[in-house]
Specification:
Chain lengths: 248, 259
Amino acid sequence: MIDLRDVHKAFGANRVLRGVNLTVPKGESMVIIGGSGTGKSVLLKCVLGLVRPDRGNILIEGQDAARAEREAFLARFGMLFQGAALFDSLSVWQNVAFRLLRGHKKRPRPEAREIAIEKLRRVGLKPEVADLFPAELSGGMQKRVGLARAIAADPEIIFFDEPTTGLDPIMAGVINELIREIVVEMGATAMTITHDMTSVRAIADDVAMLHDGVIKWAGPVAEMDDSGDPYLDQFIHGRAEGPIEAVR
Amino acid sequence: MVLDPIAGIGRSTLALLSGIGRVGLFFLATLAAALRPPFYFREFGHALMTIGYNSLPVVGLTALFTGAALALQIYAGGSRFNAEEVVPSIVAIGMARELGPVLGGLMVAARVASSIAAEIGTMKVTEQIDALVTLSTDPMRYLTVPRVLAATISVPILVAVGDSIGIFGGYLVGTGRLGFNPAAYLKNTADFLEVWDVTSGLIKGAVFGFLVALVGCYFGMNSGRGAQGVGRATKSAVVSASVLILAANYLLTELFFTG
């Protein structure tokens, strides 16, 4: 379970998070939605310790993230970055097996390569891709490799940062399906941030809407359309009129 | 209005001092990371190749032409007071003590500090540094330590090779253009060149290599967003590394050869 309690974060005068409270139950898929620049990525990075919150607590299975031993803590996570964030200087299989080639989870190179190829196959990529470099792949293939890397070490918690950004609708649908299948199959807790409503409906068990640095609404995806919350309503229907100020 | 220039000087001084402080902290963080496992030997080997081996052509060519030009200059200057015979010894001493390490260091600064800053800066803006952290890998240990160590070790070797090539450049010009006897030229070079001349240059090379890689990594890790941020980081890395090399060269020369 991921438990965020009164999390604040400011960058200079810009108060991005103003007291976020959110609980993600174990094994559930939580999708956080919200407009661009509302602090969704910052929230994710706070959980991972990439950004230090100014105030508040983040508990993972009851353990304070700020006090956990870093390597063991991070070993529980997998993350798919918005732009895939693949390492240019490493081949595809070395990217996927990155965690398996070093640190506590180190495996012999041939075994790590086997696992990487298996994970690539799981995300729909052929073994021939393994020896290519990221620059030789399309955007959709890079996302799949990023997804394979995120699940390579069988993490308990997986984060997806804008998983369908920059993809055509068909490829976005494929990635959404893959994410849903993998999360269910692994029994992992998933936290996704997106503003793509198709992704939300495909991936989410629960939805939380972040606006003005706080969670405006949270609940099951099935209740999202009838929430009665004016912010959520405006966002999911993409209306320019409403409580969320739209800059023209 | 009258105080504006003074305020400007104050702001620049504060910015300079805080910059030195930040680089100092970055150095301490690098040192701390270097002393604790895990050690990334594969990345270290790769950095040795890219920083050291791949810099050989540019350092070699620089040294060759510098040695050749130095021989011509010393011959022209020496002829004013009938001291043309000093060409071999002055070329050797000049290359080993000063020109080999300084020009080698500057060429490495141009080639390596820029590429390190651009590479790490790009990794930062494309979230690859964040990805490293989420994969339980400390970017300081994985990116900075191998590069700084590799540069500290490989630049003295580059300087040694550059010294030899520079002296050879002087030899080519001395024997081919200035009429020196080849055997006498070599004997003169060997007789006057002392071990400390060479060693001091190698120590300078190690310091310059360290500075180049440290500054490259620092600006890369602190790169701003987008292409402009990476471009600015790259430019700052080259300029800072070059100035630091020249300043360090003066301090080391004071330390080694005076008093």
